[in-house]
Design brief:
Blueprint (H helix, E strand, L loop, with lengths): L4 H32 L2 H15 L9 H28 L21 E2 L2 E2 L1 H16 L29 H17 L7 E5 L6 H14 L4 E5 H12 L10 H7 L2 E7 L6 H16 L4 E5 L3 H7 L2 H10 E5 L5 H5 L1
Helix pairs in contact: 1-4, 2-3, 5-6, 8-9, 9-11, 10-11
The structure holds zinc ion.
């Protein structure tokens, strides 16, 4: 996937910040060790000297002597390291206390490994490109821990004998398990029910955990994402790197919030069909939330769209009363 200059630059800046933070943290751990055991400074100096002394091997003609010299230096070096480790242990630190702690051990937060862009850098660019799409989302990422079942009535339903709270507890548990077990082969979900029953909250909670696990996630209201695709399609906006439609098709998890709220045209219906269908064909999971029941969905979109959602998605129905009204 190709990214624009802006995304590249931003990813570079973020990595540089990480490297700086790791270096600064190391410097303060070192200063602490010097305060705790001042003899550390002497050992550190001697260790540096053994490193520099290697170059003197060039002056020695006899190869046997060179080997002996290097062996001696190595022994001295190891002894110094052992002595430092002992000091650290006495002070209550691990032997790696004075190692830099980069977030990526492969490239040491430089973004380059073996002369190529490191995977961490690609991942970062990918997520930055998706974040730009999610910026349209009206809500910040919320978590499962803020989801309260207390807002759902626990009075048993007259017909089924099951309360909305019981139903929603099952929905919540399903979503939690879905988020923690997420893999690119996870099923697609259709979350439906009245407005204000927590569909957006739970899909954002899933998004948060899946991003945390290192997957690329695009979350957005269907209306905003479709408007963006329209703008790009009709030349009113330039895409950053790949087109929005392509990002929506290829991200690890796509969350289309509030399907059905957008204004439907032949163009939007065909874009939605293309996204849903392409993702199913590539086995990329999608989560759709909607206030529309399946018959309403069918009336609004073609059967081509609804048959995919009906046949290939897991359906989760949300129960209860509008939480936003109860809170007010
Ligand atoms: Zn890396």
């Amino acid at each position: 996937m190709g990214y624009g200059e802006q995304v590249f630059q931003k990813a570079k800046d973020i990595l540089q910040q990480k490297r700086l933070a790791a270096d600064t943290a190391l410097e303060s751990r070192r200063a602490q060790v010097v305060r705790e055991c001042p003899e550390y400074l002497m050992l550190e100096r001697e260790l540096a000297l053994t490193g520099q002394a290697v170059i003197k091997a060039l002056d020695i003609k006899d190869p046997d002597e060179v080997a002996k010299y290097i062996k001696g230096l190595r022994k001295q070096n190891l002894e110094l390291q052992a002595e430092i480790a002992r000091l650290l242990k006495v002070a209550g630190h691990g032997s790696d206390y004075l190692e830099p702690r980069y977030t990526c051990a492969v490239c040491r937060d430089t973004g380059i490994a073996d002369g190529k862009l490191c995977d961490c850098f690609r991942k970062l660019m990918k997520q930055l490109a998706y974040d730009a799409l999610c910026a349209d989302s009206p809500l910040k990422i919320s978590g499962f821990e803020d989801f309260s079942l207390a807002y759902y009535p626990d009075k048993p339903d007259e017909r089924t004998g099951i309360s909305a709270r019981r139903r929603m507890q099952e929905v919540l548990e399903f979503c939690q398990a879905y988020a923690s077990d997420f893999s690119p082969g996870s099923p697609s979900l259709y979350l439906f029910g009245e407005t204000g029953l927590g569909k957006t909250h739970l899909s954002l909670s899933i998004a948060g955990e899946v991003i945390e696990a290192g997957y690329s996630v695009v979350y957005g209201s269907t209306q905003n994402l479709i408007a963006r695709i329209e703008d790009e399609h009709f030349g009113r906006r330039a895409a950053d790197g790949d087109s929005t439609e392509s990002k929506l098709i290829h991200c690890d998890l796509l969350i289309l919030d509030d399907l059905g709220a957008e204004f439907c045209t032949q163009f939007t219906v065909s874009v939605i069909y293309n996204i849903i269908n392409s993702r199913l064909l590539n086995s990329h999971p999608t989560i759709i939330s909607s206030n529309l029941s399946l018959p309403e969905l069918e009336a609004k979109y073609t059967t081509r769209v609804t048959s995919r959602i009906l046949g290939e998605y897991r359906h989760l129905r949300f129960f209860g009363r509008d939480i936003r009204q109860i809170r007010e």
